[in-house]
Amino acid sequence: MSLINDLSGQANVLVCGASQGIGLALCAQLLARDDVAQVWAASRQATRSDGLAALAAEHGQRLVRVDCDARDEQSLEDLARVTGATCDHLHLVISTLGILHQDGARAEKSLGQLDLSGLQASFATNTFAPVLLLKHLLPLLRKQPSTFAALSARVGSIGDNRLGGWYSYRASKAALNQLLRTASIELKRLNPASTVLTLHPGTTDTQLSQPFQANVPSDQLFEPAFAAQCIIELVGRLGPADSGSFWAWDGQPVPW
Ligand SMILES: NC(=O)c1ccc[n+]([C@@H]2O[C@H](COP(=O)([O-])OP(=O)(O)OC[C@H]3O[C@@H](n4cnc5c(N)ncnc54)[C@H](OP(=O)(O)O)[C@@H]3O)[C@@H](O)[C@H]2O)c1
């Protein structure tokens, strides 16, 4: 399957949130493909990540590691400049930016555990960073075809919320979905061959989910490599006609 809809030739790909977890697994699988020319791997620890260093040793200059704090617009501007210096078009951008219990965010179980700083931390990384990433990379997404996919989470679905809890994580992902739905409408005008997607990777064994894995049956806890494979299959299958929609790892749409 082609990496993205209507791709002719090799693709330039950027993964933001690439130093570990699903982002790192995506980089490994993208670099293993013949139809991928180059991968830009961005995160705060990109140049200090052992996983990315191992990929750099294997793939040489096909992997470019960029330290970037996506909560900081200057850092995003620098990322866009560094990428744009050697590449005039990104065919695929995947944002794996997300926190649940790190960097000041909390997985609140009750209203009493909610506070402003936790809400702001969740929204800064889960909501504002991915859409500002899209804003800064937009000049590199104007040609055809291009796909921007952000990892959201099923718990961000308002229609699917039966359990409650995780206030700030749920709300920040729901707001991300709305921002990217809105962006998909603007991008359709700028580039009719663009696709904007929000994707649920499934519960995956990473640092983000570690404290919450006890009650997850082992057959429902994915390896990062499996989640990455499902995401790559989704971006290959979904094209401009699907832009602005929300999908799960198994190819099923997720209700807003
Ligand atoms: N794991 C799950 O079960 C699960 C389920 C549903 C949805 N998701 C979503 O899937 C995505 C990936 O999750 P994961 O489990 O792979 O998480 P993870 O292992 O914690 O990885 C998150 C990545 O994001 C980067 N990152 C965090 N803050 C950043 C910032 N400010 N600027 C740049 N990079 C930043 C981290 O790198 P640095 O520390 O180097 O910056 C890291 O590489 C997230 O959006 C998450 O919400 C995960």
Short description:
The protein has 256 residues and is of the alpha/beta class.
Search tags:
6 helices, binds NADP nicotinamide-adenine-dinucleotide phosphate, Rossmann fold, 7 strands, 37% helix, globular
End-to-end distance: 28 Å
Helix content: 25-40%
Largest sheet: 7 strands, parallel
The CATH class is Alpha Beta
Give the number of domains: 1
What are the secondary-structure elements, in order, as H or E? Answer: EHEHEHEHEHEHE
What best-fitting shape do the alpha-carbon axes yield?
globular
Report the CATH topology name: Rossmann fold
Strand order of the largest sheet: 3-2-1-4-5-6-7
For the record, the CATH architecture stands as 3-Layer(aba) Sandwich
At the fourth CATH level, what is the homologous superfamily? NAD(P)-binding Rossmann-like Domain
Which band does the percent of strand residues land in? Answer: 15-25%
Q: What is the arithmetic mean of pLDDT?
A: 97
Q: Segments where pLDDT lies below 50 for 5+ residues?
A: none
What ions, cofactors and ligands are bound? Answer: NADP nicotinamide-adenine-dinucleotide phosphate
The number of helical runs is 6
The structure class reads alpha/beta
Radius of gyration: 17 Å
Total DSSP E strands: 7
Walk me through this protein's architecture.
The protein has six helices and seven strands. It has 256 residues and is an alpha/beta fold. The protein has one domain (11-248): Rossmann fold, CATH 3.40.50.720. The chain is globular and about 50 Å long. The two termini are 28 Å apart. NADP nicotinamide-adenine-dinucleotide phosphate is lined by residues 17-23, 43-45, 68-71, 96-99, 125, 129, 151, 153, 200-201, 203-204, 206-209.
